[in-house]
Amino acid sequence: MSITGECFCGKINYEVSGELRDARSCHCSRCRKAFSSQASAYALVDANDFKWVTGEQHLATYESNHGFGLQFCSKCGSTLCGIFNGAVHGVTLGCVNGDPRVEISQHIFVGSKAPWELIPEGVKTFDEGPPPDGSS
Ligand SMILES: [Zn+2]
Ligand SMILES: [Zn+2]
Predict the structure, then answer these.
(1) In the predicted structure, residue 124 carries a pLDDT above the cut 70
(2) How far is the CA of 107 from the centre of ligand 1 (A)?
(3) Distances (CA, A) of 39 to 2, 3, 109
(4) Cα-to-centroid distance, 60 and ligand 1 (Å)
(5) Is the pLDDT of residue 84 over 80?
(6) What is the rounded CA–CA span in Å between residue 114 and residue 28?
(7) Ligand closest to CA 28
(8) Measured distance CA(125)–CA(110) in Å, rounded
(9) Ligand nearest to the CA of 129
(10) Among 1, 7, 29, 51, whose Cα sits 20 to 30 Å from the Cα of 16?
(11) Do 14 and 59 meet the contact criterion of CB atoms below 8 Å apart?
């Protein structure tokens, strides 16, 4: 069964035929702005497994430095995916429908979290980026 996602207004829908992986939440100040939230909630996807189903013409793209960017609905503003060099790199978990069978395994850059955010006990946190071996 494929994973689906859509924006708040429902004009844009996508489908992922493979699995989401490496779900993470980044609490840095840049991600807070980009996701309009206390942190990002994001999982990687294989670009070949991803396709827009409806509403691709309503997508707007913001490209930042180093080839990374975000694509969002120009009608309602939901951020749907991240792109790298023009290809879909991952999806925002907030726009995924139902249970994508993936859990956020690490909270990164918690050292620069917003002063108003309380981190729940028991979640795996890192003050900065993930450990270099990526094994956790
Ligand atoms: Zn929308
Ligand atoms: Zn971040």
Answers:
(1) yes
(2) 27
(3) 26, 22, 9
(4) 11
(5) yes
(6) 8
(7) 2
(8) 6
(9) 2
(10) 29
(11) no
Q: How far apart are CA 2 and CA 24, in angstroms?
A: 21
* Interval 31-46 mean pLDDT: 96
Location of structure tokens 């990687």: 44
Q: Give the per-residue SS3 of 61-115.
A: EEECHHHEEEEEECCCCCEEEEEECCEEEEEEHHHECCCCCCCCCEEECHHHCCC
Q: Span 111-124, mean pLDDT?
A: 94
Segment 64-70 mean pLDDT: 88
Question: Which domains, and CATH codes, for the chain?
Answer: 3-112 (2.170.150.70)
Mean pLDDT (whole number) for 108-114: 97
Residue 132 CA to residue 58 CA, distance in Å, equals 37
Residue 135: predicted pLDDT: 52
Nearest to 19 by CA among 135, 102, 103, 107: 102
Give the distance (Å) from ligand 2 centre to CA of residue 106: 12
Give residue 70 CA to ligand 2 midpoint distance, Å: 13
